[in-house]
Design a protein that fits this description.
The complex is a heterodimer of chains A (111) and B (119).
Chain A lengths: L2 E5 L2 E5 L4 E8 L3 E9 L6 E6 L5 E4 L2 E5 L3 E6 L8 E9 L7 E2 L3 E6 L1
Parallel strand pairs in A: 2-11
Antiparallel strand pairs in A: 1-3, 3-8, 4-5, 4-9, 6-7, 7-8, 9-10, 9-11
Chain B lengths: L2 E5 L2 E4 L5 E8 L5 E7 L5 E9 L2 E4 L6 E6 L2 E6 L8 E8 L14 E2 L3 E5 L1
Parallel strand pairs in B: 2-11
Antiparallel strand pairs in B: 1-3, 3-8, 4-5, 4-9, 5-6, 7-8, 9-10, 9-11
Classes of the chains: A mainly beta (111), B mainly beta (119).
């Protein structure tokens, strides 16, 4: 069974304090890994797609990386507006339309 | 650009009442459409997906059903709501990308969601 585990469940940072969120996965064959940002009471907002180990994507203060077992979302010098829940999801070969989601990391950045 | 709408935004319904949630997508044709439910503090659970008009696949047996009467319209329904149907319902769409079937990656884009409370 495909599994996605995100850690930590919650993370509190001071503004400017860089850190990383982890998404580890156990799947039969990874087609793609996705990161989303979700604000309270809203739908997830797409951030990145990663396809293969060694790949990196960047957007503003966020950088996503991928290995054969896990993905990291690095947040550099975060600001309070980066506070949100960050979700990762995987898509596997043979299940082209289905995403398996982790439970998310709730990030709070304090001013 | 593509946009996805859901309504209502919030809904409070008594146990045993019917349900109809609607989702529409603009700016694209023949999208794949999805219904998810998100329980508090948990990840998203896929309920239904559709690859075309009248084509519905159910991922989880439950008290809900879905229909796709038009290309860009997706409806989630129930004849009699249960307390356990409470949650945050999300509609999403995707298009296939890639040059061959084996390389298609389905990035999904989500709507604003409907908060359903069954009392």
């Amino acid at each position: 069974e495909d599994q996605v585990t995100q850690s930590p469940e919650a993370l509190r940072l001071q503004e400017g304090e860089s850190s990383s969120l982890n998404c580890s996965y156990t799947v039969s064959g990874l087609r793609g890994l996705f990161w989303y940002r979700q604000d309270p009471g809203k739908g997830p907002e797409f951030l990145f797609t990663l396809y293969s180990a060694g790949e990196e994507k960047e957007k503003e203060r966020l950088k996503a990386t991928l290995t054969k077992k896990e993905s990291f979302l690095h947040i550099t010098a975060p600001k309070p507006e980066d506070s949100a829940t960050y979700l990762c999801a995987v898509q596997v070969f043979g299940s082209a339309r289905q995403l398996t989601f982790g439970s998310g990391t709730q990030l709070t950045v304090l001013p | 650009s593509q946009t996805i709408h859901q309504w209502p935004a919030t809904l409070v319904q008594p146990v045993g009442s019917p349900l109809s949630l609607e989702c529409t997508v603009e700016g694209t044709s023949n999208p794949n459409l999805y219904w998810y439910r998100q329980a508090a503090g948990r990840g998203l659970q896929l309920l239904f997906y559709s690859v075309g008009i009248g084509q519905i696949s159910s991922e989880v047996p439950q008290n809900l059903s879905a229909s796709r009467p038009q290309d860009r319209q997706f409806i989630l329904s129930s004849k009699k709501l249960l307390l356990s149907d409470s949650g945050f319902y999300l509609c999403a769409w995707s298009l296939a990308r890639g040059s061959t079937t084996s390389s298609k990656v389905y990035e999904q884009y989500f709507g604003p969601g409907t908060r359903l409370t069954v009392t």
